[in-house]
From TrEMBL, chain A:
Residues 368-379 have a biased composition (Basic and acidic residues). It is found in: Cytoplasm. It comes from Brassica rapa subsp. trilocularis. The gene is A09p078720.1_BraROA. The keyword Kinase does not apply. Belongs to the eIF-3 subunit H family. The lineage of its organism: Eukaryota, Viridiplantae, Streptophyta, Embryophyta, Tracheophyta. Component of the eukaryotic translation initiation factor 3 (eIF-3) complex, which is involved in protein synthesis of a specialized repertoire of mRNAs and, together with other initiation factors, stimulates binding of mRNA and methionyl-tRNAi to the 40S ribosome. The eIF-3 complex specifically targets and initiates translation of a subset of mRNAs involved in cell proliferation. It comes from the Eukaryota. InterPro entries: Cyt_c_oxidase_assmbl_Pet191, eIF3h, eIF3h_C, JAMM/MPN+_dom, JAMM_MPN+_peptidase_M67A, MPN. Pfam families: eIF3h_C, JAB, Pet191_N. Component of the eukaryotic translation initiation factor 3 (eIF-3) complex. Keywords: Cytoplasm, Initiation factor, Protein biosynthesis. This is Eukaryotic translation initiation factor 3 subunit H. Residues 126-259 form the MPN domain. CDD domains: MPN_eIF3h.
UniProtKB/TrEMBL annotation, chain B:
Component of the eukaryotic translation initiation factor 3 (eIF-3) complex, which is involved in protein synthesis of a specialized repertoire of mRNAs and, together with other initiation factors, stimulates binding of mRNA and methionyl-tRNAi to the 40S ribosome. The eIF-3 complex specifically targets and initiates translation of a subset of mRNAs involved in cell proliferation. It is found in: Cytoplasm. The gene is A03p023080.1_BraROA. It comes from Brassica rapa subsp. trilocularis. Gene3D superfamilies: Cytidine Deaminase, domain 2. The keyword Nucleus does not apply. The lineage of its organism: Eukaryota, Viridiplantae, Streptophyta, Embryophyta, Tracheophyta. This is Eukaryotic translation initiation factor 3 subunit F.
Length: 438, 293
């Protein structure tokens, strides 16, 4: 694939070097590459566009392979979470060096060439088609309680991200050799869907979750992987356990920009966070979801299922035994608080160490100074006031706050859920009371 | 090629190989996802094609009902005398789908447009080689009868001696089923556009309103019967009596205690979650507080 694009590149360079821009104005080829006609002849513009598209096609192939690798990693992590306890063990992502270098090369050239790429408006709404919603529900529900993932396909239009279709990923039991299989599956699916005119653009991925405990480091890493290749991507979280309560628990998440910058810098110390005034609430941004359906589909649906005055969802909502759900929530909440307190203890330990180190430093410095005084009076060279080989001068690494932020997010999520359900329960109880009085 | 579809559905008797199997009525149960898929594929079809065909995936339940759960479109070309189906595509998609869900196998195929024609019979033959006794589903996207109809057929071969004369498509009853979780999202799926998904409390509100309407209706009905405006229907009367009688008969004291206990439990939970939230904000302040050194 790279060979065909190289031919185009050579042609482009040749055309540009013979153009007015380079010959007469004596500018560099790279400069002229971004110009429009009449500075460079229209054939050069045409060649440039063709080269553009060729590189884009390459990127697409590269990025689809990359996704499958990162998603395989996500799936592996999810297998470890079959127990009720949400585990946060870290697994390192295998990084495809060759692909990433090719992608960055292509990207930088593209950026150099195209100076008029518009800045994308911020994402305001995610519009999902009923078809995608049904598919997600079906897939997540069939495999509950195993956690499953899938890919979202759609279009990125202005401030709306449209999700028009999706396909599920198979659940993998074994490890390493399935990487290639997973990539093949993905490419195959996308190719087949393109043949039936389905939008072939990846816009994100979806995953199922248990009681809303989805904030993990792996999620962030997958996000970062995706973000490098697509400008806007979203993760849809679906919670099948809430369907019993009559709620359609679908959420669209995105990492906030400030968080992404921080993450790229890899620096989560207190200083940085205070500078940016960044709190745990700023990591994830939830985007409102709109559901749309084609007219044909809603015509069919309306006909097949006439408007009943009361639907099954209502029955579910009126049922008052929410105890199992609440119990599970409380259990998870308690476990998360335990984790949080562990993280807090880490910080305490760090601070204690730091202050102890400072005290030691002071003491040592004092000693050195008195020694130096003695030496100066004896006419000898004063010793340096710092000694890097001494372990008390070694800076202690500050523990990253990322983990505690994520746990905090989870805890607040659980709290929110409990609040919601408790509120519903209140209404239900008052309802029964009223009924009984009559 | 003969095709019959009558409005009263003839009971289709599956040929029984052993003497002991009783006659079974074959029915097809469809999940709404299939309809959504078909409509979506129809809307996206290439301009030259008049109809879309595709494969149906699902399973056969032990009582003989065919459960159709998923589907995908297969590109095909149809002219007046020839039908070409992209078989490689079909096999590739099947393999991909089986990787995700090995239990969903081919149970038949669908096509949009009403009626069964010659081309369909050929395609049906092809699918008969892929699965035993495939179901042919027609989804009328053209709304020819003024309504969208979904019909399912099975075909049997009419033969005279050794010669194959025709294939007869016989209609079987279709049942549209929704799984629990899908029902929950049902309101959302029916409209052409929904601005936002209702969260917990809003859903609750909706439910309460509906319940209120129902009770009002019942009230009006009873009133009108008492006043003699409408003739009493014993069945409805019995239903109402049953509903009212199903309220548990507890002495008011016991009931009050019950309600109060539950209320207290809920309050306790709310209190716990608010405390946790406060703890979180405190912890955050401490975490990023200036280090006092």
């Amino acid at each position: 694939m790279a060979k065909s694009c190289k031919g185009l590149a050579e042609e482009l360079v040749k055309c540009l070097s013979e153009s007015m821009c380079v010959k007469d104005e004596k500018r560099s080829i790279r400069d002229c590459a971004g110009e429009k006609s009449p500075c460079i002849p229209s054939e050069c513009v045409g060649l440039r566009e063709t080269y553009f598209n060729c590189k884009r096609g390459q990127l697409k192939e590269a990025l689809s392979h990359r996704f499958s690798l990162s998603l395989a990693h996500l799936r592996r992590r999810q297998r470890h979470t079959t127990s009720r306890r949400v585990s946060r063990r870290r697994i390192s992502i295998p990084s495809p060096q060759k692909l990433s270098s090719m992608a960055t090369m292509a990207r930088s050239f593209l950026q150099a060439i195209s100076k008029d790429e518009a800045v994308a408006p911020p994402l305001r709404v995610v519009q999902i088609e009923g078809l995608a919603v049904l598919k997600i529900i079906k897939h997540c529900k069939e495999f509950a309680p195993t956690l499953v993932t899938g890919q979202l396909l759609g279009l990125d239009v202005g401030s709306v991200l449209e999700v028009t279709n999706c396909f599920p990923f198979p659940v993998r039991d074994d490890d390493e050799e399935i990487e290639a299989d997973g990539a093949n599956y993905q490419l195959e699916m996308m190719r087949c869907l393109r043949e039936v005119n389905v939008d072939n653009n990846t816009v994100g991925w979806y995953q199922s979750t248990v009681l809303g405990s989805y904030q993990t480091v792996e999620l962030i890493e997958t996000f970062m992987n995706y973000q490098e290749n697509i400008k806007r991507c979203v993760c849809i979280i679906y919670d099948p356990s809430k369907a019993d309560l009559g709620v359609l628990a679908l959420k669209a998440l995105k990492l906030s920009d400030s968080f992404m910058e921080l993450y790229r810098a890899g620096n989560f110390t207190g200083e940085k966070l205070r500078e940016k005034n960044f709190s745990w609430m700023d990591i994830f941004e939830e985007i409102p979801i709109k559901v749309s359906n084609s007219a044909l589909v809603s015509a069919f649906m309306t006909e097949l299922e006439t408007d009943a005055p009361v639907s099954q969802g209502d029955y579910d909502r009126l049922q008052s035994s929410t105890t199992p759900f609440l119990e599970n929530n409380m259990e998870f909440l308690i476990k998360c608080m335990d984790d949080l307190s562990m993280e807090q203890q880490k910080f305490q330990y760090y601070y204690r160490n730091l202050s102890r180190q400072q005290a030691q430093r002071q003491a040592w410095l004092q000693k050195r100074r008195t020694e130096n005084m003695a030496r100066r009076s004896a006419g000898e060279e004063p010793l340096p006031e710092e000694d890097p080989s001494n372990p008390i001068f070694k800076p202690i690494p500050e523990p990253s706050r990322l983990e505690s932020f994520l746990i905090t997010n989870q805890v607040s999520n659980f709290c929110g859920q409990i609040n919601g359900v408790a509120g519903q329960n209140f209404s239900r109880l008052y309802l029964t009371k009223a009924l009984h009085e009559n | 090629m003969a095709a019959t579809n009558e409005h009263t559905v003839l009971q289709f008797v599956t040929p029984s190989s052993t003497a002991s199997t009783t006659t079974q009525v074959l029915t097809a149960r469809i999940h709404p996802l299939v309809i959504f898929n078909v409509c979506d594929c129809f809307v996206r079809r290439p301009d030259s094609a008049e109809r879309v065909i595709g494969t149906l995936l699902g399973s056969i339940l032990p009582d003989g009902t065919v459960d159709i759960r998923n589907s995908y479109a297969v590109p095909h070309n149809e002219s007046s005398d020839q039908v070409a189906v992209d078989i490689d595509y079909h096999h590739n998609m099947l393999a991909s789908h089986l990787k995700v869900n090995p239990k969903e196998v081919i149970v038949g195929w669908y096509s949009t447009g009403s009626g069964v024609n010659g081309g369909s019979a050929l395609i049906h033959d092809f699918f008969a080689r892929e699965a035993t006794n495939p179901i042919h589903l027609t989804v009328d996207t053209g709304f020819t009868n003024g309504e969208g109809t979904i019909k399912a057929y099975v075909s049997s071969n009419l033969s005279l001696g050794d010669r194959q004369l025709a294939a007869q498509f016989q209609e079987i009853p279709v049942d549209l089923r929704m799984v629990e979780a899908e029902r929950v999202g049902y309101d959302v799926l029916k409209a052409t556009a929904v601005d936002k998904l209702p969260n917990d409390m809003e859903g609750m509100e909706l439910t309460m309103e509906r319940l209120l309407t129902l009770i009002n209706d019942v009230y009006k009905y009873v009133d009108s019967v008492v006043e003699g405006k409408t003739s009493p229907d014993n069945n409805i009367g019995r239903f109402i009596a049953e509903a009212v009688a199903s309220l548990p008969k507890l002495p008011p004291q016991v009931f009050d205690n019950l309600v109060n206990d539950s209320l207290q439990d809920q309050l306790l939970l709310l209190y716990l979650s608010s405390i946790t939230r406060t703890q979180l904000s405190l912890a955050e302040k401490l975490n990023t507080a200036a280090q006092m050194l």
